[in-house]
Each structure stands twice: as structure tokens, then as C-alpha cells.
Amino acid sequence: MTRPRPSAFPLLLAAAIGLCLLAAVLALAIGSVAIDPADSVRILLDALLGHSPPAEDPLAMERSILLSLRLPRALGAALTGAALSVSGVVMQAVLRNPLASSYTLGVSSGAALGAGLMLLTPLGGMSHMALGFMIGMPFAGFVGGLLTVLLVLALAGRIDRSLSNNTIVLMGMVVSLFVSGVLTILVTLRRESMEALVFWQLGSFSAFRYDEALLLAILLAVVFLLMLSQAPGLDLLTFGEEEARAMGAEPRRLKPVLLLLCSLLTGTAIAFAGIIGFVDLVAPHLVRRLTGPAHRRVLPLSALVGATLMLLADLLSRTLFSPRELPVGAITSLIGGPFFVWIYFRRRRPVT
What we know:
globular; ABC transporter involved in vitamin B12 uptake, BtuC; 15 helices; mainly alpha; single chain
């Protein structure tokens, strides 16, 4: 496949921004109550500029629905999709494996277990008195995700000292299943909140709040800039540790830092939204087919594509069988699984 020239990247970036904005408009306009896109823009501008609605506001219902329900939900979906996709790009580069992601390595399950422990045990009450619930949840998710990664790497190292990529992914799937089982047992023991917790475990943006979106946005911006600054090192890591070291990179220092940042980003997103898979696999693969492997192009485009995919998945989850809502994780699995298989086998197809 012919790679696009570097001059084509601005066009791809503009197209990705346009598609993301279009998905956001659809997410705000479509629902059980349809809101005209022009009215949506007017309501958003009034909110941004601090304008008070008139005494007899003809858009009172639409304003309440958009600002109280749809906007924080759309922000949560877009930020979560971008965070998971950026994390997936970096994990695939660090481990040199197209199947590596926060989902297949167990980071998502570990983060969900950490956040679940915060919700289901006395730790939840302690977080209100200590870090605060909004900070305690992502911190618990980060710790859970990081510990899971370390456990996967430790077990893979005991089985295969060379830490082959296939061994790492296999152990990640095994640990992920074990951690998910532990979380399921905890949820079962709390029957009074089982339905809400199971729905959260499968992924949902229905309860996303503005303060959570702000925290995730700040974290995503900081981690994204740090990862973008390491784009040359990520490019070298794709050639292997020895080659990267020969070309001036320091894999032993760079890889732990990048995995730490991935765990922080994924843990925070999962703590707020629940377990959502395949976006961090599909978005990087799709972007690399368009731009090539250079991470200065892959990282920003993957963030935009991931945000777009998550906005559309969330829109489907709440409109497909309205008024019933489906878990977002189920939508991404149904769409992302076959799509990833198609991409994987197409990559293996010999060029004629």
C-alpha cells in the first residue's frame, strides 16, 4: 500500500477534526428528543458566553437536556475514546505488537478492579475524606492498571525470559480474565447495587459529569504532550530494543515511563467510564494505514479517530433500542472485534 506524502497529513488532520465535530453534533442533536443543530449551537454559545436564557425560553427543555445530559456525556465519550486510543498507540509501539492494548494486556480490567474496590468497599468512604471521590477513583484505577501490567510482565518473564510479544499478550489475557472474575465476585456480593455496577463494568457514559470531563481533559492533554515529545523514541522502539539503542534511544528508561503514562491515562478513563475495549486497537490500526508509522502523525490522528468512534458508539448505545440503553462496551466489541479481524488478516495478505 502506498503511504501518503507528508504534505497530505494536514488534509487528513482537517478531515479527522471535521468528522469528530460532525459526530459531536450528531451526539448532541439525536436522541429521544431531537434538537435542531442550529439550536444546539445557540445553546452552547449562550452557555460559553454566560448569557442567561429569556424568562419565557422556548428552548427550555432542549437547553436542559443538552447541557445537563448530552453535553457531559459527549465530552466523556470523546475524551475516553481519545485517551484509550493514544494509550493503544504507545503500547503497540513499546511492545512491538499490533495486538497490544490496554484491553488485551489487562490494564482495563485492573483499572476497573481498582475503581470497583473504591466503590464496593469502605475505601469508597475513605476516599471522600482523603483524596476526594473524583481524585480517588482515577487514582484507584491507575494503581489497579499499573499493578496489572507489572503482574503480566512478571509472569511473562518467568515463562519466557526473552519476553516475546506473544507471551506478553497471552499472559495479559489470562490475567485479565482472572481480574474480571474477582471483580464479578465483588459485584455479586453487593446485590443491592449489582445492576448499576454491572452496567458500569460494561462501559457507560450516562453518569459522566463536567468535573470528571475536566480532570480527564487536563490529564489527557499533559500525557499526550509528553508522549508526543517522545515520538522519535517511539519510532525507534518499533525497530526493536537493540536497534533503538544503536540509534541513540534508551529503551530501559523510556519503556517503563511510557507504560506508566499509559496506565495513568487508561486507569483514569476506565475508572469514570467502565471497561471499554477495541477502540484502542482499531483506531491506531486505521490511522497507521492512512499515515504510515511516524508517531508525530499517528498520535494526534488516533486521538481524533478514537474520539469519533466512541461518540458514534455511545450514540448507538442510547438510540439503537431506545428507550433502553445498551452498554457502550458491548457496542465497541460488536463493531470493533470483526473490524479488527478484517484489518489483521488484510495486513497479512500478500501483496500481488
